[in-house]
Amino acid sequence: MTLSIHLTVNGAAQDVALDDPRVTLLDLLRERLHLTGTKKGCDRGQCGACTVLVDGRRVNSCLTLAASLEGAEVLTIEGVARGDELHPVQAAFIANDGFQCGYCTPGQIMSAIGLISEGRLDGDPERVREGMSGNLCRCGAYAGITNAVLEAEATMSETAKEAAE
Amino acid sequence: MKPFDYVRPATIEEAVQAGSMEGSAFLAGGTNLLDLMKGGVVEPQRIVDVTHLPDLSAIDATSDGGVRIGALVRNADLANDADFAGRFPAVAEALLSGASGQLRNAATVGGNLLQRTRCRYFYDVASACNKREPGSGCDAREGENDGLAVLGWSDRCIATHPSDFCVPLVAFDAVVEIAGPSRRREIALEEFHRLPGETPEKESVLEPGELIVAVRLHAESIAFCANQRYLKVRERTSYAFAVVSAAAGLIVEDGRITQARLALGSVAPKPWRARAGENLLAGQKPERAAFERAAEAALAEAKPSGDNAYKIDLARRLIVRAFERAAAGTPNPLPALPASPFAHSPEAAHV
After folding, report:
1. Distance (Å) of CA A21 to CA A3, B4, B6, B179, B196
2. How far B35 CA sits from the closest chain A CA (Å)?
3. Pairwise pLDDT comparison (B22 vs B348), residue with the higher score
4. Coil, strand, or helix at residue A7?
5. Which of A47, A116, A126, B34 could form a disulfide with A42 if both were Cys (CB 3.0 to 4.6 A apart)?
6. Domain 2Fe-2S ferredoxin-type: where (chain A) (predicted)?
7. Are A106 and A39 in contact (CB under 8 A)?
8. CB B81: neighbour CB atoms within 10 A?
Protein backbone atom coordinates (compact mmCIF):
# COMPACT_ATOMS: atom_id res chain seq x y z
CA MET A 1 0.00 0.00 0.00
CA THR A 2 1.40 3.41 -0.91
CA LEU A 3 0.40 6.31 1.25
CA SER A 4 0.61 9.84 0.05
CA ILE A 5 1.00 12.81 2.36
CA HIS A 6 0.98 16.51 1.73
CA LEU A 7 3.26 18.61 3.90
CA THR A 8 5.37 21.77 3.85
CA VAL A 9 9.11 21.51 4.45
CA ASN A 10 11.08 24.73 4.93
CA GLY A 11 8.34 26.70 3.21
CA ALA A 12 8.01 24.42 0.17
CA ALA A 13 4.75 22.50 -0.15
CA GLN A 14 5.17 18.96 -1.33
CA ASP A 15 3.39 15.69 -1.91
CA VAL A 16 5.39 12.72 -0.71
CA ALA A 17 4.61 9.09 -1.53
CA LEU A 18 5.44 6.69 1.30
CA ASP A 19 5.90 3.09 0.21
CA ASP A 20 6.17 2.00 3.84
CA PRO A 21 4.29 3.45 6.86
CA ARG A 22 7.31 2.77 9.08
CA VAL A 23 9.16 5.81 7.72
CA THR A 24 9.82 8.35 10.45
CA LEU A 25 10.01 12.08 9.82
CA LEU A 26 13.76 11.81 10.42
CA ASP A 27 14.22 9.17 7.71
CA LEU A 28 11.89 11.06 5.37
CA LEU A 29 14.02 14.19 5.72
CA ARG A 30 17.38 12.46 5.41
CA GLU A 31 16.77 9.58 3.02
CA ARG A 32 13.94 10.81 0.79
CA LEU A 33 14.21 14.59 0.79
CA HIS A 34 18.03 14.62 1.17
CA LEU A 35 17.95 17.18 3.98
CA THR A 36 20.82 15.65 5.94
CA GLY A 37 21.30 18.58 8.34
CA THR A 38 18.93 16.83 10.75
CA LYS A 39 21.02 14.16 12.48
CA LYS A 40 20.28 10.62 13.59
CA GLY A 41 21.86 10.04 16.98
CA CYS A 42 20.09 7.48 19.14
CA ASP A 43 16.96 7.14 16.95
CA ARG A 44 15.02 6.55 20.20
CA GLY A 45 14.09 10.01 21.44
CA GLN A 46 16.86 10.29 23.99
CA CYS A 47 19.54 12.49 22.44
CA GLY A 48 17.71 15.29 20.62
CA ALA A 49 20.01 15.33 17.57
CA CYS A 50 16.99 14.89 15.31
CA THR A 51 15.05 17.87 16.68
CA VAL A 52 12.99 19.82 14.13
CA LEU A 53 9.97 22.11 14.40
CA VAL A 54 6.58 20.69 13.41
CA ASP A 55 3.91 23.39 13.22
CA GLY A 56 6.30 25.66 15.11
CA ARG A 57 6.97 23.24 17.99
CA ARG A 58 10.18 21.33 18.62
CA VAL A 59 9.82 17.54 18.47
CA ASN A 60 12.04 14.47 18.07
CA SER A 61 11.68 13.59 14.38
CA CYS A 62 12.84 10.01 15.08
CA LEU A 63 9.68 9.35 17.11
CA THR A 64 7.30 10.93 14.60
CA LEU A 65 5.73 8.76 11.89
CA ALA A 66 5.83 10.65 8.60
CA ALA A 67 2.44 9.17 7.72
CA SER A 68 0.82 11.04 10.60
CA LEU A 69 2.04 14.45 9.35
CA GLU A 70 -0.65 15.12 6.76
CA GLY A 71 -0.90 18.91 6.42
CA ALA A 72 2.02 19.67 8.76
CA GLU A 73 4.61 22.43 8.42
CA VAL A 74 8.13 21.24 9.09
CA LEU A 75 11.14 23.48 9.69
CA THR A 76 14.64 22.00 9.68
CA ILE A 77 18.09 23.48 10.18
CA GLU A 78 18.32 24.01 6.39
CA GLY A 79 15.39 26.42 6.58
CA VAL A 80 16.33 28.80 9.39
CA ALA A 81 18.87 31.15 7.75
CA ARG A 82 17.80 33.86 5.30
CA GLY A 83 20.19 33.30 2.44
CA ASP A 84 23.63 34.14 3.81
CA GLU A 85 22.21 35.77 6.91
CA LEU A 86 22.37 33.38 9.83
CA HIS A 87 19.46 32.90 12.21
CA PRO A 88 20.24 34.69 15.52
CA VAL A 89 20.53 31.31 17.27
CA GLN A 90 23.04 30.09 14.68
CA ALA A 91 25.07 33.27 15.07
CA ALA A 92 24.98 32.99 18.86
CA PHE A 93 26.23 29.38 18.77
CA ILE A 94 29.25 30.53 16.75
CA ALA A 95 29.90 33.58 18.93
CA ASN A 96 29.70 31.53 22.14
CA ASP A 97 31.53 28.37 21.07
CA GLY A 98 28.34 26.36 21.49
CA PHE A 99 29.79 23.21 19.93
CA GLN A 100 32.92 21.20 19.31
CA CYS A 101 32.39 18.32 16.84
CA GLY A 102 29.09 19.79 15.64
CA TYR A 103 27.06 16.60 15.33
CA CYS A 104 24.43 17.58 17.89
CA THR A 105 24.42 21.23 16.77
CA PRO A 106 21.51 21.21 14.29
CA GLY A 107 19.33 19.58 16.94
CA GLN A 108 20.59 21.98 19.61
CA ILE A 109 19.81 24.98 17.41
CA MET A 110 16.34 23.77 16.45
CA SER A 111 15.60 22.97 20.09
CA ALA A 112 16.83 26.42 21.14
CA ILE A 113 14.65 28.12 18.51
CA GLY A 114 11.65 26.17 19.81
CA LEU A 115 12.54 26.90 23.44
CA ILE A 116 12.95 30.64 22.88
CA SER A 117 9.62 30.81 21.06
CA GLU A 118 7.96 29.12 24.05
CA GLY A 119 8.71 32.39 25.79
CA ARG A 120 9.42 31.44 29.40
CA LEU A 121 13.20 31.80 29.71
CA ASP A 122 13.39 35.34 31.11
CA GLY A 123 17.17 35.29 30.80
CA ASP A 124 17.46 32.59 33.48
CA PRO A 125 20.33 30.15 32.81
CA GLU A 126 18.64 27.52 35.00
CA ARG A 127 15.56 27.64 32.78
CA VAL A 128 17.81 27.33 29.71
CA ARG A 129 19.57 24.26 31.10
CA GLU A 130 16.28 22.67 32.07
CA GLY A 131 14.68 23.56 28.74
CA MET A 132 17.60 22.17 26.73
CA SER A 133 17.91 18.92 28.73
CA GLY A 134 16.52 16.89 25.83
CA ASN A 135 19.62 17.65 23.75
CA LEU A 136 22.79 15.78 24.61
CA CYS A 137 26.24 17.04 23.67
CA ARG A 138 28.90 14.37 24.09
CA CYS A 139 31.66 16.96 23.61
CA GLY A 140 30.30 18.72 26.68
CA ALA A 141 29.82 22.17 25.17
CA TYR A 142 26.95 22.87 27.56
CA ALA A 143 28.39 26.07 29.02
CA GLY A 144 28.73 27.59 25.54
CA ILE A 145 25.30 26.30 24.52
CA THR A 146 23.68 27.90 27.58
CA ASN A 147 25.36 31.23 26.87
CA ALA A 148 24.39 31.03 23.19
CA VAL A 149 20.73 30.45 24.01
CA LEU A 150 20.70 33.31 26.52
CA GLU A 151 22.35 35.67 24.02
CA ALA A 152 20.01 34.64 21.19
CA GLU A 153 16.98 35.09 23.42
CA ALA A 154 18.15 38.61 24.29
CA THR A 155 18.89 39.47 20.63
CA MET A 156 15.56 38.12 19.43
CA SER A 157 13.50 39.92 22.08
CA GLU A 158 15.38 43.16 21.25
CA THR A 159 14.61 42.67 17.55
CA ALA A 160 10.98 41.91 18.33
CA LYS A 161 10.75 45.11 20.43
CA GLU A 162 12.23 47.21 17.63
CA ALA A 163 9.84 45.66 15.13
CA ALA A 164 6.92 46.52 17.40
CA GLU A 165 7.97 50.17 17.74
CA MET B 1 10.54 -2.37 13.35
CA LYS B 2 8.09 -5.02 12.14
CA PRO B 3 5.90 -4.00 9.18
CA PHE B 4 2.38 -2.86 10.04
CA ASP B 5 -0.75 -1.58 8.36
CA TYR B 6 -1.49 2.10 8.86
CA VAL B 7 -5.02 3.42 9.15
CA ARG B 8 -6.15 6.95 9.85
CA PRO B 9 -9.77 6.96 11.02
CA ALA B 10 -11.84 10.13 10.65
CA THR B 11 -14.14 9.58 13.62
CA ILE B 12 -13.98 8.08 17.11
CA GLU B 13 -16.39 5.37 15.95
CA GLU B 14 -14.09 4.37 13.10
CA ALA B 15 -11.11 4.45 15.43
CA VAL B 16 -12.78 2.19 17.97
CA GLN B 17 -13.79 -0.22 15.21
CA ALA B 18 -10.26 -0.41 13.81
CA GLY B 19 -8.84 -0.61 17.32
CA SER B 20 -11.03 -3.61 18.13
CA MET B 21 -9.32 -5.78 15.52
CA GLU B 22 -6.69 -8.14 16.88
CA GLY B 23 -3.17 -6.72 16.72
CA SER B 24 -4.24 -3.06 16.61
CA ALA B 25 -2.57 -0.29 18.57
CA PHE B 26 -3.64 3.36 18.80
CA LEU B 27 -0.99 5.94 17.87
CA ALA B 28 -1.14 9.41 19.44
CA GLY B 29 2.11 11.20 20.37
CA GLY B 30 4.07 8.04 19.66
CA THR B 31 6.84 8.93 22.09
CA ASN B 32 6.58 5.61 23.91
CA LEU B 33 4.94 3.40 21.27
CA LEU B 34 7.47 4.05 18.49
CA ASP B 35 10.33 3.50 20.91
CA LEU B 36 8.83 0.17 21.95
CA MET B 37 8.26 -0.82 18.32
CA LYS B 38 11.83 0.04 17.36
CA GLY B 39 13.04 -2.20 20.18
CA GLY B 40 10.78 -5.07 19.15
CA VAL B 41 9.10 -4.91 22.58
CA VAL B 42 5.66 -4.51 21.00
CA GLU B 43 4.83 -5.48 17.44
CA PRO B 44 1.40 -4.23 16.39
CA GLN B 45 0.03 -5.48 13.09
CA ARG B 46 -2.03 -2.33 12.64
CA ILE B 47 -1.41 1.24 13.72
CA VAL B 48 -4.60 3.23 14.20
CA ASP B 49 -3.49 6.87 14.01
CA VAL B 50 -5.87 8.88 16.19
CA THR B 51 -3.91 12.15 15.96
CA HIS B 52 -6.29 13.63 13.39
CA LEU B 53 -9.52 12.86 15.25
CA PRO B 54 -11.61 15.96 15.86
CA ASP B 55 -12.73 17.29 19.26
CA LEU B 56 -10.11 15.55 21.41
CA SER B 57 -7.67 18.45 21.74
CA ALA B 58 -9.55 20.93 23.91
CA ILE B 59 -9.27 21.92 27.57
CA ASP B 60 -12.84 22.79 28.56
CA ALA B 61 -14.66 23.94 31.68
CA THR B 62 -17.32 21.42 32.73
CA SER B 63 -20.81 22.43 33.85
CA ASP B 64 -19.90 21.74 37.50
CA GLY B 65 -16.90 24.09 37.33
CA GLY B 66 -14.30 21.37 36.83
CA VAL B 67 -12.01 20.74 33.86
CA ARG B 68 -12.27 18.29 30.97
CA ILE B 69 -9.00 17.59 29.17
CA GLY B 70 -9.21 16.01 25.72
CA ALA B 71 -7.12 12.88 25.28
CA LEU B 72 -5.03 14.45 22.50
CA VAL B 73 -4.05 17.56 24.46
CA ARG B 74 -0.25 17.67 24.46
CA ASN B 75 1.57 17.63 27.80
CA ALA B 76 3.21 21.01 27.16
CA ASP B 77 -0.09 22.66 26.19
CA LEU B 78 -1.83 21.49 29.34
CA ALA B 79 1.04 22.46 31.64
CA ASN B 80 1.27 25.92 30.07
CA ASP B 81 -2.44 26.65 30.03
CA ALA B 82 -2.56 29.44 32.62
CA ASP B 83 -6.13 28.73 33.75
CA PHE B 84 -5.45 25.05 34.18
CA ALA B 85 -2.10 25.55 35.92
CA GLY B 86 -3.74 27.98 38.33
CA ARG B 87 -6.36 25.44 39.34
CA PHE B 88 -4.11 22.37 39.35
CA PRO B 89 -0.55 23.63 39.84
CA ALA B 90 0.83 20.26 41.00
CA VAL B 91 -0.46 18.66 37.80
CA ALA B 92 1.28 21.33 35.73
CA GLU B 93 4.46 20.89 37.77
CA ALA B 94 4.36 17.11 37.30
CA LEU B 95 3.96 17.51 33.54
CA LEU B 96 6.86 19.95 33.33
CA SER B 97 9.07 17.66 35.39
CA GLY B 98 8.64 14.81 32.92
CA ALA B 99 10.69 13.96 29.84
CA SER B 100 12.15 16.77 27.69
CA GLY B 101 10.75 19.84 25.95
CA GLN B 102 10.55 17.93 22.66
CA LEU B 103 8.75 14.96 24.19
CA ARG B 104 6.30 17.15 26.11
CA ASN B 105 5.35 18.81 22.82
CA ALA B 106 4.41 15.42 21.34
CA ALA B 107 3.17 13.30 24.25
CA THR B 108 -0.56 13.31 24.93
CA VAL B 109 -2.82 13.05 27.95
CA GLY B 110 -4.33 9.72 26.88
CA GLY B 111 -0.96 8.28 25.94
CA ASN B 112 0.54 9.25 29.27
CA LEU B 113 -1.97 7.08 31.12
CA LEU B 114 -1.13 4.15 28.85
CA GLN B 115 2.65 4.45 28.79
CA ARG B 116 4.49 1.27 29.63
CA THR B 117 6.87 0.60 32.48
CA ARG B 118 10.54 1.47 32.05
CA CYS B 119 11.65 -1.77 33.76
CA ARG B 120 14.79 -2.66 31.81
CA TYR B 121 13.81 -6.34 31.63
CA PHE B 122 10.56 -5.40 29.92
CA TYR B 123 12.59 -3.48 27.31
CA ASP B 124 15.27 -6.13 26.85
CA VAL B 125 13.65 -8.73 24.60
CA ALA B 126 16.32 -11.30 25.53
CA SER B 127 15.14 -11.23 29.18
CA ALA B 128 12.25 -13.13 30.71
CA CYS B 129 9.31 -10.81 31.38
CA ASN B 130 5.80 -11.87 32.29
CA LYS B 131 4.46 -8.52 31.18
CA ARG B 132 5.96 -8.71 27.69
CA GLU B 133 5.59 -12.47 27.30
CA PRO B 134 3.12 -13.96 29.80
CA GLY B 135 4.47 -17.02 31.58
CA SER B 136 8.10 -16.44 30.61
CA GLY B 137 9.20 -15.45 34.12
CA CYS B 138 10.64 -12.29 35.63
CA ASP B 139 14.37 -11.67 35.36
CA ALA B 140 13.97 -8.50 37.41
CA ARG B 141 13.38 -10.53 40.60
CA GLU B 142 17.05 -11.57 40.71
CA GLY B 143 18.34 -8.74 38.56
CA GLU B 144 18.98 -5.02 38.83
CA ASN B 145 15.81 -4.12 40.64
CA ASP B 146 16.79 -1.18 42.81
CA GLY B 147 14.36 1.13 40.97
CA LEU B 148 11.38 -1.23 41.03
CA ALA B 149 8.21 -1.52 43.11
CA VAL B 150 7.79 -1.54 46.88
CA LEU B 151 3.98 -1.44 46.85
CA GLY B 152 1.37 -3.42 44.93
CA TRP B 153 3.80 -5.81 43.24
CA SER B 154 3.40 -9.55 42.82
CA ASP B 155 5.71 -12.53 42.36
CA ARG B 156 5.01 -12.26 38.64
CA CYS B 157 5.97 -8.61 38.19
CA ILE B 158 7.71 -5.89 40.20
CA ALA B 159 7.65 -3.15 37.55
CA THR B 160 6.56 0.42 38.33
CA HIS B 161 4.26 2.78 36.47
CA PRO B 162 6.54 5.62 35.38
CA SER B 163 4.11 8.52 34.93
CA ASP B 164 4.54 11.86 36.66
CA PHE B 165 1.26 13.30 35.36
CA CYS B 166 -0.86 10.46 36.77
CA VAL B 167 0.39 11.01 40.33
CA PRO B 168 -1.33 14.36 41.08
CA LEU B 169 -4.22 13.28 38.83
CA VAL B 170 -4.94 10.28 41.02
CA ALA B 171 -4.43 12.37 44.16
CA PHE B 172 -7.08 14.84 42.96
CA ASP B 173 -9.66 12.21 41.96
CA ALA B 174 -9.38 12.38 38.17
CA VAL B 175 -11.89 10.47 36.07
CA VAL B 176 -11.12 8.79 32.72
CA GLU B 177 -13.69 8.95 29.89
CA ILE B 178 -13.59 5.97 27.55
CA ALA B 179 -15.21 5.31 24.15
CA GLY B 180 -15.74 1.66 23.23
CA PRO B 181 -17.28 -0.50 20.53
CA SER B 182 -20.64 -0.71 22.28
CA ARG B 183 -20.78 2.17 24.73
CA ARG B 184 -19.10 5.10 26.41
CA ARG B 185 -18.13 4.76 30.05
CA GLU B 186 -16.05 6.47 32.69
CA ILE B 187 -13.95 5.26 35.56
CA ALA B 188 -11.92 6.84 38.37
CA LEU B 189 -8.24 6.98 37.45
CA GLU B 190 -7.57 5.21 40.74
CA GLU B 191 -9.44 2.18 39.33
CA PHE B 192 -8.13 2.52 35.78
CA HIS B 193 -4.77 0.75 36.17
CA ARG B 194 -4.66 -2.84 37.42
CA LEU B 195 -2.24 -4.39 39.84
CA PRO B 196 -0.19 -7.20 38.28
CA GLY B 197 -1.30 -10.17 40.38
CA GLU B 198 -1.13 -13.24 38.14
CA THR B 199 -1.65 -11.24 34.92
CA PRO B 200 0.90 -8.42 34.68
CA GLU B 201 0.27 -8.16 30.92
CA LYS B 202 -3.14 -6.64 31.72
CA GLU B 203 -2.25 -3.13 32.81
CA SER B 204 -5.55 -1.29 32.63
CA VAL B 205 -9.28 -1.93 32.55
CA LEU B 206 -9.45 -1.05 28.84
CA GLU B 207 -11.09 -3.69 26.67
CA PRO B 208 -10.06 -4.24 23.02
CA GLY B 209 -10.96 -1.19 20.94
CA GLU B 210 -11.59 1.09 23.89
CA LEU B 211 -10.09 4.53 23.49
CA ILE B 212 -9.45 7.16 26.16
CA VAL B 213 -11.25 10.32 25.01
CA ALA B 214 -10.78 12.64 28.01
CA VAL B 215 -9.66 13.04 31.61
CA ARG B 216 -11.83 15.05 33.97
CA LEU B 217 -11.06 16.83 37.23
CA HIS B 218 -13.91 17.88 39.52
CA ALA B 219 -14.54 21.39 40.78
CA GLU B 220 -14.09 20.22 44.41
CA SER B 221 -10.44 19.40 43.73
CA ILE B 222 -9.71 23.03 42.83
CA ALA B 223 -10.01 23.83 46.56
CA PHE B 224 -6.49 22.41 47.01
CA CYS B 225 -4.91 24.87 44.56
CA ALA B 226 -3.34 27.16 47.17
CA ASN B 227 -1.48 24.36 48.97
CA GLN B 228 -0.17 21.66 46.69
CA ARG B 229 3.13 20.35 45.36
CA TYR B 230 4.56 17.61 43.21
CA LEU B 231 8.09 16.57 44.16
CA LYS B 232 10.22 14.05 42.32
CA VAL B 233 13.54 12.47 43.28
CA ARG B 234 15.59 11.64 40.20
CA GLU B 235 19.10 10.37 39.54
CA ARG B 236 19.79 13.62 37.67
CA THR B 237 18.17 17.01 37.85
CA SER B 238 16.27 16.92 34.59
CA TYR B 239 15.04 14.54 31.89
CA ALA B 240 14.89 11.45 34.08
CA PHE B 241 12.15 9.19 35.37
CA ALA B 242 11.36 9.38 39.06
CA VAL B 243 13.00 7.12 41.62
CA VAL B 244 10.15 8.19 43.91
CA SER B 245 7.68 11.03 43.50
CA ALA B 246 4.87 12.46 45.61
CA ALA B 247 1.88 14.71 45.01
CA ALA B 248 0.51 16.37 48.13
CA GLY B 249 -2.41 18.75 48.60
CA LEU B 250 -3.98 20.37 51.65
CA ILE B 251 -6.97 22.46 52.54
CA VAL B 252 -6.18 24.45 55.69
CA GLU B 253 -8.81 26.41 57.61
CA ASP B 254 -8.15 28.28 60.88
CA GLY B 255 -4.77 26.61 61.26
CA ARG B 256 -6.13 23.06 60.88
CA ILE B 257 -6.07 20.67 57.93
CA THR B 258 -9.61 19.91 56.84
CA GLN B 259 -8.67 17.66 53.91
CA ALA B 260 -5.47 16.16 52.52
CA ARG B 261 -4.58 14.42 49.27
CA LEU B 262 -1.56 12.20 48.72
CA ALA B 263 -0.31 9.98 45.90
CA LEU B 264 3.04 8.41 45.08
CA GLY B 265 4.77 7.72 41.78
CA SER B 266 7.33 5.11 40.68
CA VAL B 267 6.78 3.01 43.79
CA ALA B 268 4.07 0.68 42.47
CA PRO B 269 2.70 -0.83 39.24
CA LYS B 270 0.13 1.98 39.17
CA PRO B 271 -0.04 5.60 40.32
CA TRP B 272 -0.49 5.04 44.05
CA ARG B 273 -3.16 6.89 46.00
CA ALA B 274 -2.19 6.84 49.67
CA ARG B 275 -5.52 7.30 51.46
CA ALA B 276 -4.24 5.97 54.80
CA GLY B 277 -1.84 8.91 54.92
CA GLU B 278 -4.56 11.40 53.95
CA ASN B 279 -7.00 10.24 56.61
CA LEU B 280 -4.55 10.83 59.44
CA LEU B 281 -4.14 14.48 58.52
CA ALA B 282 -7.75 15.63 58.82
CA GLY B 283 -8.08 17.86 61.89
CA GLN B 284 -4.32 18.13 62.43
CA LYS B 285 -2.15 21.22 62.42
CA PRO B 286 -0.05 21.41 59.25
CA GLU B 287 3.17 20.50 61.04
CA ARG B 288 6.04 18.13 60.50
CA ALA B 289 5.02 15.64 63.19
CA ALA B 290 1.63 15.14 61.55
CA PHE B 291 3.21 14.76 58.12
CA GLU B 292 5.60 12.15 59.51
CA ARG B 293 2.69 10.11 60.88
CA ALA B 294 0.94 10.38 57.52
CA ALA B 295 4.09 9.18 55.76
CA GLU B 296 4.35 6.18 58.09
CA ALA B 297 0.75 5.24 57.37
CA ALA B 298 1.19 5.72 53.62
CA LEU B 299 4.05 3.22 53.51
CA ALA B 300 2.71 0.79 56.14
CA GLU B 301 2.10 -1.92 53.55
CA ALA B 302 5.35 -1.40 51.64
CA LYS B 303 7.91 -4.16 51.29
CA PRO B 304 11.03 -4.38 49.13
CA SER B 305 10.87 -6.46 45.94
CA GLY B 306 14.66 -6.58 45.70
CA ASP B 307 17.46 -4.14 46.42
CA ASN B 308 15.02 -1.31 46.96
CA ALA B 309 14.26 -1.02 50.67
CA TYR B 310 15.76 2.48 50.43
CA LYS B 311 12.78 3.56 48.33
CA ILE B 312 10.46 3.07 51.30
CA ASP B 313 12.47 5.47 53.45
CA LEU B 314 12.90 7.84 50.54
CA ALA B 315 9.14 7.87 49.92
CA ARG B 316 8.44 8.65 53.60
CA ARG B 317 10.84 11.57 53.59
CA LEU B 318 9.58 12.87 50.26
CA ILE B 319 5.99 12.79 51.54
CA VAL B 320 6.99 14.89 54.55
CA ARG B 321 8.77 17.38 52.35
CA ALA B 322 5.94 17.53 49.81
CA PHE B 323 3.42 18.28 52.57
CA GLU B 324 5.73 20.86 54.13
CA ARG B 325 6.10 22.59 50.78
CA ALA B 326 2.36 22.35 50.16
CA ALA B 327 1.66 23.86 53.59
CA ALA B 328 4.05 26.71 52.78
CA GLY B 329 1.91 27.57 49.75
CA THR B 330 1.94 26.72 46.07
CA PRO B 331 4.84 28.56 44.43
CA ASN B 332 4.00 31.08 41.73
CA PRO B 333 5.59 31.04 39.24
CA LEU B 334 6.65 27.43 39.25
CA PRO B 335 10.35 26.95 40.05
CA ALA B 336 12.87 26.86 37.18
CA LEU B 337 13.47 23.20 37.98
CA PRO B 338 9.96 21.77 38.28
CA ALA B 339 9.41 19.21 41.07
CA SER B 340 13.01 19.35 42.25
CA PRO B 341 13.14 18.70 46.00
CA PHE B 342 16.35 20.72 46.12
CA ALA B 343 15.66 23.85 44.07
CA HIS B 344 15.63 27.20 45.86
CA SER B 345 14.66 25.78 49.20
CA PRO B 346 16.07 27.22 52.37
CA GLU B 347 15.38 24.12 54.42
CA ALA B 348 16.59 21.50 51.94
CA ALA B 349 20.03 20.10 52.53
CA HIS B 350 19.31 16.52 51.54
CA VAL B 351 16.35 14.14 51.30
Report:
1. 7, 7, 6, 26, 33
2. 6
3. B22
4. strand
5. A47
6. 3-80
7. yes
8. 17
The answer to whether A70 contacts B8, with C-beta atoms less than 8 Å apart, is: yes
Cis peptide bond N-terminal to B333, omega within 30: yes
Indicate the domain borders of chain B: 5-52, 223-328
Phi, then psi, of B181 in degrees rounded to 5: -60, -35
Q: Do B101 and A58 touch (CB under 8 A)?
A: yes
Per-chain mean pLDDT for chain B: 96
**What single DSSP character describes residue A32?**
I
Domain range A88-164, CATH class: mainly alpha
Q: What is the fold, at CATH topology level, of the domain defined by B5-52? A: 3.30.43
DSSP string, B306-326: SS-HHHHHHHHHHHHHHHHHH
The pLDDT tens digits of the residues spanning B91-128 come to 999 999 999 999 999 999 999 999 999 999 999 999 99
Distance CA A79, CA A87 (A): 10
Q: How deeply is B84 buried, as exposed, middle or buried, from its count of CB atoms within 10 A (0-12, 13-18, 19+)?
A: buried
Q: Looking at chain B from residue 59 to 88, which residues have their Cβ under 8 Å from any Cβ of chain A?
A: 76, 80
The reply to whether residue A63 touches residue B35, judged by beta carbons under 8 angstroms, is: yes
**Model confidence over B34-71: pLDDT tens digits?**
999 999 999 999 999 999 999 999 999 999 999 999 99
Strand pairing category for B244-253 and B228-233: antiparallel
Closest-CA residue to A104 (of A150, A157, A148): A148
CATH class of the domain whose range is A3-79: alpha beta
Helix (H, G, I), strand (E, B) or coil at B174: coil
- Option in A45, A111, A130 nearest B337 (CB): A130
